[in-house]
Amino acid sequence: MAENREPERREFSPTIKTLAAHTGYSIATISKALRGSPVVARPTRDAIVAAARELGYQANARGMALRTGKTYRAAVLMPITSAVGYEWDGVEYTQILSGISQALEDSDYQLSVHGFRSFGDAFDIARRIVDQSAADGLIFSGVLADDPRIDMLFESGFPFVSLGRCRKPLVYAHVDVDNEWAAFTATARLIAGGHERIALINADRRLSYALDRIDGFSRAFHEAGLAASIDLVADGDLSTRFGRDSALRLLGLPNPPTALVCINESTTLGVLSALGSLERRVGVDVDVIAYDDINVSAYFTPPITTFYQPIELLGRKLGEFLLRRMAGEDPAELALVSRPELIGRQPDNLGGRNRS
Amino acid sequence: MAENREPERREFSPTIKTLAAHTGYSIATISKALRGSPVVARPTRDAIVAAARELGYQANARGMALRTGKTYRAAVLMPITSAVGYEWDGVEYTQILSGISQALEDSDYQLSVHGFRSFGDAFDIARRIVDQSAADGLIFSGVLADDPRIDMLFESGFPFVSLGRCRKPLVYAHVDVDNEWAAFTATARLIAGGHERIALINADRRLSYALDRIDGFSRAFHEAGLAASIDLVADGDLSTRFGRDSALRLLGLPNPPTALVCINESTTLGVLSALGSLERRVGVDVDVIAYDDINVSAYFTPPITTFYQPIELLGRKLGEFLLRRMAGEDPAELALVSRPELIGRQPDNLGGRNRS
DNA sequence: AACAGGAATAAAAACGTTTTTATCCGACCA
DNA sequence: TGGTCGGATAAAAACGTTTTTATTCCTGTT
Question: In A, which residues are within 8 Å of B13 by CB distance?
Fold first, then answer.
């Protein structure tokens, strides 16, 4: 049908054999020289390196992979949201991938992304990666309170870093946000502002961080000597629609919240949309504190108070930790729990009117 | 320091040799049988396939890769936005990757992601992928009017699919949005609503689709017999900040726009934020039509009229086209230009006040 | 003067496939 | 009966590395 241009594609790229012929050394010596083995004499190495540069030699990754068993790949599990209309879900993954990619930039590792649709799916993919050694290391998020991936990877000794911690006392490399602290701080701030009925728009309770946030939320009430408004905790997916529906439902209750804590940007937008259609205004009729993955709450009208999570930086840490883990470093050294930064854009004390 | 669990990791996975020993056939026969070659007798093949299943044999990807020169990877170039504070940029990439990942799901190909920071960077990475055959195919977006990646890939015959078209008359696989049409339609709608001074918040003019949008924008004016308000075209990165700054600047002009067309979600949020701080209301003081990557404009207050781009579906098409291209299909057959769907959420005629 | 030791390099083996070439064997034909 | 053909399988080579083992040659020691 069409002119196929395939044939002339490879102009013949030099192999280690080419170098051997060119320099007169054996391929064994070439290999050792190029990877800096001390057994080869200094001048020899220099000559070989010079020749390699001259010919534009690049080690063939497939040959190396076969011989060494390494793949030079770092795998990342990425959630896929196939539901139409929930398209904002997971937008923060761009940031995470971007961070990881930066960390890997000047290593020999390449990033490979594996989409999954469900918790079970994610486990199967992780196992396949380990079984076939399709990668040298693995990064994933969305950690469950009891996460089978962590058990499996831990047992097999496969290098991995998780974004989030499970609730078992295992030692493994991880990066996390201090969700208990953040939820506590947000809730305490609202309580200090006079609120007593506070809603928490939360994630699926199988997720470890969802539990952490409930813990912090409850602690704030207890430390203030109040009963926690546990009945105002909504959990579901992190879609905008969920945020909207939850806010509508909660605000329609007989004893509704006077403030809301939102778990991420997506739900926040949904909550604000609900407030808009109920004609209630943030900072006037109701207070809202949110988590902010992608630094966008500053542009809402009005701007709202958020915990800013430097998600790209966390991504960079994930990549860095994985590199170090793959290099054999002790996982106990590879842990980071970051406290998000509170950016107060509203007084959040509407509850003061309640303070009779 | 710590208990290293590495040693017992590989429990020995079966190779083609194991199968040979187990079945009594030679490795050559095994290989042919498993890949369905017709030269091996039917009963033999059945026996071999059964044995393979029984032993849980999985072909070693590294061995295959070395022998065949294929990598079974599809590479994607992903923009990395290192500027702090611009973190919304590129959120739609999650959707694109998600779509591609779905398309590749039941193929043998894995997705590998390569971050780049600049146009030049992207070209270098593309070239490296081709030179070292680090992948069997390539997907990228952000096509320039004159894009060196396309020239290079086209010449080398390397399979690729681009999201967007360059302005050269080359035949290559691509997926695109009909930006000329969309900009025309949005502008024409506003003109029909009585607007004459319309701003276009646009992307960098080196980008092919930025030019397409200017073309459509201008055509709408010309077909209405009006002079296009070219002085109200702003171009820059697609950040929220850019949207905000541009809107503030344009609305402060002596002869300001009465309506704005926004190029994506991120800039739209910036524009709305600017309107908020100027205390102008959408649909009352000014009309806004936007492009909507991630289906979120419905949640703005008020909801605004948008062109919805099914970005995940486009991602799926990208993946599908790449698979077909890698299978040798004629690139002329692999082209999709999608017209985004206009979702009218506002009359966009400022209540008819403009129609004098 | 002979030999041990060591430095430098070469040769060979191995990783797990696919593909090309060779071998075997029974059937068909003259 | 001898030869050819072709179907089925086996053997061997090759892909490009790294690593283990072997060889060479020089130096220093006895």
Answer: 131-132
Does residue B356 sit at the A interface (CB-CB below 8 Å)?
no
* Number of Cβ atoms within 10 Å of the Cβ of B75: 26
Two tokens, residue A38: 């001390």
Cis peptide leading into residue A302 (ω within 30°): yes
- Whole-Å CA distances, B131 to B13, B126, B158: 33, 9, 10
pLDDT at residue number A295:
65
Nearest to A159 by CA among A126, A189, A192: A126
SS3 A170: coil
Strand-pairing partners, residue A77, are A114
Determine the straight-line distance between the first and last CA of chain A, rounded to whole angstroms: 82
Residue nearest to nucleotide D15 (CA to C1'): B67
- What are the pLDDT digits (tens) for A45-90? 999 999 999 999 999 999 999 999 999 999 999 998 765 555 555 6
| Separation of alpha carbons A126 and A152, rounded Å | 9
Phi-psi map region of B179: left, alpha, beta (phi>0 left; psi -120 to 50 alpha)? alpha
Fold observed for domain A179-310+341-353: Rossmann fold (3.40.50)
Alpha-carbon gap: A171 to the closest alpha carbon of chain B (Å): 10
Q: Which fold has domain B11-59?
A: 434 Repressor (Amino-terminal Domain) (1.10.260)
- Please name the CATH architecture into which domain B73-177+312-330 falls: 3-Layer(aba) Sandwich (3.40)
* Tens of pLDDT, residues B74-107: 999 999 876 555 555 567 888 899 999 999 998 9
**Reduced DSSP (H G I as helix, E B as strand, rest coil) percent helix, strand, coil of chain B, to 5:** 45, 15, 35
Chain B touched by A6 (CB under 8 Å): yes
Q: Where are the domains of chain A?
A: 7-59, 73-177+311-338, 179-310+341-353
Can you give the pLDDT at residue B354? 58
Residue A7, pLDDT > 50, answer: no
**Which stretches of chain B drop beneath a pLDDT of 50?**
1-10, 355-356
Q: Are A347 and A283 in contact (CB under 8 A)?
A: yes
Straight-line distance from CA A29 to C1' C5, in Å?
22
A158-164 contacts at long range (C-beta below 8 A, 24 or more positions apart): A158/A129, A158/A130, A158/B9, A159/A322, A159/A325, A159/A326, A160/A322, A160/A325, A161/A137, A161/A318, A161/A321, A161/A322, A161/A325, A161/A334, A163/A96, A163/A139, A163/A314, A163/A318, A164/A207, A164/A208, A164/A209
Q: Which fold has domain A73-177+311-338?
A: Rossmann fold (3.40.50)
Which strand D bases fall within 7 angstroms of a protein CB? 7-12, 14-20
Check the CA dihedral B50-B51-B57-B58 and report its sign: negative
Q: Which of B262, B344, B256 is nearest to B304 (CA)?
A: B344
User: What's the token pair of residue A113?
Assistant: 């992304």
Contact call for residues A309 and A340 (beta carbons, < 8 A): yes
User: Are the folds of A7-59 and A73-177+311-338 the same?
Assistant: no
Domain A7-59, CATH homologous superfamily name and number: lambda repressor-like DNA-binding domains (1.10.260.40)
Cα dihedral angle (B5, B7, B10, B11), rounded to 10 degrees?
-100
**Considering only CA atoms, which of A259, A147, A148, A115 is closest in space to residue A201?**
A259
pLDDT of residue B318: 98
Residues 264-293 of A with CB under 8 A from B: 269-270, 272-273, 275-277
Structure-block tokens of residue A229: 């408004």
Residue with tokens 């539901």, as numbered in its chain: A83
With beta carbons less than 8 A apart as the criterion, state whether A195 and A166 touch: no
| CB distance B338 to B310 below 8 Å | yes
B191 contacts B198 by C-beta, under 8 angstroms: yes
